[in-house]
TrEMBL record:
Keywords: Endoplasmic reticulum, Glycoprotein, Glycosidase, Hydrolase, Membrane, Signal-anchor, Transmembrane, Transmembrane helix. It comes from the Eukaryota. PANTHER family: MANNOSYL-OLIGOSACCHARIDE GLUCOSIDASE. Residues 1-12 have a biased composition (Basic residues). Residues 320-804 form the Glycosyl hydrolase family 63 C-terminal domain. Cleaves the distal alpha 1,2-linked glucose residue from the Glc(3)Man(9)GlcNAc(2) oligosaccharide precursor. It comes from Diatraea saccharalis (sugarcane borer). This is Mannosyl-oligosaccharide glucosidase. Its EC number is 3.2.1.106. It is found in: Endoplasmic reticulum membrane.
């Protein structure tokens, strides 16, 4: 396979340009001798061959460096860190239940751990959001993305409410206060172990940052923050015992383990035996700095603690006690007002309970925005081994705080639909960070695993990102939508206009990368790269499309063409045309592509089946593929499942896979309102037993051969029938679009829109009430949430769907 081709001598980088030119001088001087002796011709030939080899090796070296060379243009993010004081501190560690850090590569991190003394042996210490903790629910209930947030965590018999409010000012990031409020069922008095810690990230090399304890407070110094102090101020309840340790942790990814190793059982007068943190023996006599300070409090509930972070240079007193409560109540009131102004859910008649769920969905997405820093690992066909990308920051939302607490490229486009409604500032900043991750080829790695904490949570096989892998350009489409909606914010001489101008060349490069690397063999066709066939998968996955195991042609080949990608490219051209026009550039090139890709005759020639009257992918395909168990050659191996075919694959449209992919010409509004084929899609949407379910649209028709089929013995179905929020959102948005466009299908589109919306919203809300979570996907059979939880990535779009605002 080309992707894994090994090439020799690729160590030489730009330095061998010298070699190239000296060889060329040699060969020129050989020519210049003008002797006709055989020897001389021979020498000339050798010289020439050496020259070619040098050019070849030089080119390989050059190609090898392309994958991790940044795009050559000014960065979009120009102000960060202390230059943006309002977003400096935040709950930017979505992967922990509660933590604070600043938007600084080497920010100290603060966070909460806890355990239930009675149950610690089987429940363990809580720290990272973890599905195996089986908490009945947790998540931000209100969060404005800037100044405050409030979260409730249920860990029976305890409820832990964590909140924070910031006080900006001064030159070093200002103060913040976090409150941790622990209650037990029936307001009982129970024992609870709470740990608040500060830690320094040293994975980025030493810096003059320090942490220590003085007078009961956690003290610290970093170049950006200057001197700071974190004081723990109990507001209510009893502290039975407290202890702290000045310790050294080998990395942010093992703080819990380090804490655990510091525990020693002691006798406590009046309490009995209790495990208490003690000195770090690994520090003794070794040349290690303190980088981890856990403070442990054994408390009796109900208990309320204020964690007060103060910076030395800000004279304003920090919030605590009653003042904190007052400030928090005001923030909550402002949040509620802005939420209603933005989404108008009460006005639409939703009961308070449902509005609270929408607030939680929205808040956990916004409160899940993180700040990551580090270098991913990438590979191209020219690199022998994966190589590090450059170190960079990423400010981004995450799909799931427990399961996917990191950035995903196409998810982020959907997150932006919701975040951009709340704050164009925040969303522009997020897009800016993503676009700064584009390389010189115009490629953006689709999964961003930056920093030791993020890396520790990713299975090894998913770490390396290949530069042939695309991912739908939803972020570009979202950006264009945001401009269309708020043209005044992008008028000449505005901040966002200048940012957009810096984005433009990068957006164009990204678009051109698609146009050159994902083209199909037929004119105006496109093909997702990266479908590997190991003959173990029932249908080789197309991870790059975002729809992972959605059935495509059974046998990946170069003749394949993907209808969803063609529609994405239509929407991308349309978006770039709008962006070019907005900043006074020539949109003609994009308009031409848009016109070509929306030409229905061309589309139909490539993707419309006159037999089934549906849109489909094209490729080498057979419906006669199945997994069978084969007995191993050696008796000590276990039998394994492999794919066999009962009829050979043939070049054809993949019409048996009727589902989300077949809908794309409607989903991305490629079809004209008068289109006959649009009428057929709408008719099919409504047919029982296909995609329609009482819970939303299924990803794959019940009538498809691969409906809810496993892809390998280890791989359960994922996009093979389940209901997904992002595509239901696109469908609703498209239905509303066609409902409001004059045409023969507008009445039907309107009617489908209202029924689909009601079904989808009803199920998400009732599953939240039943389970305490928003889920990654929902069953098309009984509506039950499945996959991971909480998934307040694109499932949070339920808020926009309730608002009927697409
Ligand atoms: C702590 O939480 C309890 C239960 O949610 C609530 O009744 C109480 O008012 C809270 N106290 C503070 C000081 O926030």
């Amino acid at each position: 396979m080309v992707r894994h081709r090994k090439v020799g001598h690729v160590q030489l980088k730009h330095g061998n340009n010298n070699e190239t030119s000296s060889s060329s001088n040699n060969s020129e001087s050989s020519f210049a001798s003008r002797t006709f002796k055989v020897l001389s011709i021979w020498k000339t030939l050798v010289g020439f061959v050496c020259f070619l080899i040098a050019v070849y090796v030089g080119t390989l070296g050059y190609l090898e460096t392309r994958v991790n060379t940044p795009f050559d243009n000014e960065k979009v993010v120009q102000e960060t860190g202390l230059d943006v004081p309002q977003r400096y501190w935040g709950s930017y560690r979505p992967g922990v239940y509660f933590g604070m850090k600043s938007r600084e590569p080497k920010s100290p991190v603060f966070g909460l751990m806890w355990y239930d003394l009675a149950a610690v042996s089987h429940k363990g210490i809580r720290h990272w959001c973890d599905q195996n903790d089986n908490l009945p629910s947790y998540g931000w209930l209100r969060h404005d993305g800037i100044s405050f947030g409030e979260q409730s965590i249920s860990d029976p018999p305890h409820t832990i409410v964590t909140s924070f409010v910031k006080t900006t000012g001064g030159a070093h990031g200002g103060h913040w206060t976090a409150r941790i409020n622990i209650t037990a069922q029936n307001n009982a008095n129970s024992h609870f172990m709470l740990i608040w810690y500060g830690a320094l990230d040293e994975s980025l090399g030493p810096e003059s940052s320090r942490l220590w304890v003085e007078g009961g407070a956690l003290m610290g110094h970093t170049p950006q923050l200057d001197h700071f102090r974190v004081t723990l101020v109990p507001q209510k309840g009893k502290i039975i015992h407290s202890a702290y340790s000045e310790a050294h942790a080998p990395g942010l990814h093992v703080l819990k383990e380090k804490f655990y190793s510091l525990l020693k059982v002691q006798k406590h007068p009046g309490f009995g035996r209790v495990a208490v943190v003690g000195p770090d023996e690994e520090l003794d006599g070794k040349d290690k700095e303190v980088n981890f300070v856990p403070i442990q409090l054994l408390v009796e509930t109900p208990f309320v603690l204020d964690v007060v972070y103060t910076t030395e240079d800000l004279p304003t007193p920090p919030l605590q006690g009653h003042d904190y409560q007052k400030a928090l109540d005001e923030k909550k009131k402002m949040f509620d007002d802005k939420f209603e102004n933005t989404f108008k859910l009460l006005e639409k008649g939703y009961p308070e309970e449902d509005v609270s769920i929408a607030k939680a969905a929205f808040s956990n997405m916004l409160g899940g925005v993180g700040y990551f820093y580090g270098a991913g690992r990438v590979q191209s066909q020219y690199t022998r081994e994966p190589v590090p990308y450059w170190r960079a920051p990423l400010y981004t939302a995450v799909p799931s705080r427990s399961f996917f607490p990191r950035g995903f490229l196409w998810d982020e486009g959907f997150h932006g639909l919701l975040i951009g409604r709340w704050s164009v500032d925040i969303q522009m900043d997020i897009i800016a960070h993503w676009l700064d991750l584009i390389n010189v080829e115009g490629w953006i790695p689709r999964e961003q695993i930056l920093g030791t904490e993020a890396l520790a949570r990713v299975p090894k096989e998913f770490v390396v990102q290949s530069n042939s892998a695309a991912n739908p350009p939803m972020l570009l489409i979202q950006l264009a939508g945001m401009i269309r909606r708020n043209p005044e914010l992008f008028a000449p001489d505005t901040t966002h206009r200048r940012t957009l101008e810096r984005m433009y060349n990068r957006l164009k490069a990204w678009y051109n990368w698609f146009q050159t690397t994902q083209k199909g063999e037929e004119p105006t066709s496109y093909r997702w790269r990266g479908r590997d066939d190991d003959e173990l998968q029932l249908n080789p996955k197309t991870l790059t499309s975002g729809l992972d195991d959605y059935p495509r042609a059974s046998h990946p080949s170069d003749i394949e063409r993907h209808v969803d990608l063609r529609c994405w490219m239509y929407a991308a051209a349309d978006s770039l045309s709008l962006i070019a026009t907005t900043i006074g550039k020539d949109p003609d090139k994009f308009d031409a592509v848009r016109a070509e890709l929306s030409d229905e005759d061309l589309l139909n020639e490539l993707h419309w089946s006159p037999h089934t009257r549906t849109y489909a992918d094209y490729g080498l395909h057979t419906d006669g593929a199945r997994l069978v168990k084969v007995n191993p050659k050696h008796p000590n191996e276990s039998p394994k499942m492999v794919r066999v075919v009962t009829s050979p694959p043939q070049p054809r449209l993949v019409t048996s896979a009727f589902g989300y992919v077949s809908l794309f010409p409607m989903l991305l509004k490629v079809l004209k309102p008068k289109s006959e084929n649009l009428g057929k899609i709408l008719e099919d949407l409504d047919k029982p037993g296909l995609l329609w379910s009482p819970y939303g649209l299924r990803s794959l028709s019940k009538s498809s051969p691969l409906y809810m089929k496993r892809n390998t013995e280890h791989d359960p179905p994922y996009w093979r029938g389940q209901v997904w929020a992002n595509v239901n959102y696109l469908a609703l948005s498209a239905l509303k679009h066609y409902a409001s466009s004059l045409g023969p299908h507008s009445a039907r589109a309107a009617e489908l829109h209202s029924r689909l919306r009601a079904n989808f919203v009803r199920n998400i809300l009732s599953e939240y009430k039943r389970t305490g979570y928003l889920w990654e996907q929902y069953s098309g059979e009984d509506g039950k949430g499945s996959g991971c939880r909480p998934f307040t990535g694109w499932t949070g779009l339920v808020t926009l769907i309730m608002a009927e605002d697409y």
